[in-house]
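Any chance you could type out some protein's one-letter sequence along with its backbone structure tokens so I can compare the two?
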Amino acid sequence: MDGLFDIVIPDQIPLWPPGPAWFVLAGLIVVGITFIVSWRYRKWQQNAYRRTAVRQLEQLEEIRSARGINELLKRVALVSYDRSVVAGLAGSEWMTFLRNTGGRFSDDDGALLLAGYRKAEVADVAALHLDSLVSAARSWIRHHHV
């Protein structure tokens, strides 16, 4: 038994400093998070006109102005699309454009919008039709594709 030695337990492996791979991984995570945050921020800035338009739409809904809604949709379209394409649109061409770019405007909504071209204001607007128009306009503002 004189030739036997006690079992030697090695020292624990320290947690710090980590290996080089951990620094590379941490760097990649920081770069990824930075990329995602900057991308989301740019997207948020690009959609500022949509948020502003939705707030203006809520004001127009309170005063029940179909003509104002039409003007707001035209201003949003002028911001989003090429001016030479949008500026000259009126009547049925305007409704076709709104529908082709993601709008879900019914025939009643279209009639209400087009009435704004002929009159200063639509006097007898049924609440259901205006609510439907506001809903379709809000959906188009938020989701139109450029």
The chain has seven helices and no strands. The first helix runs from residue 20 to 46.
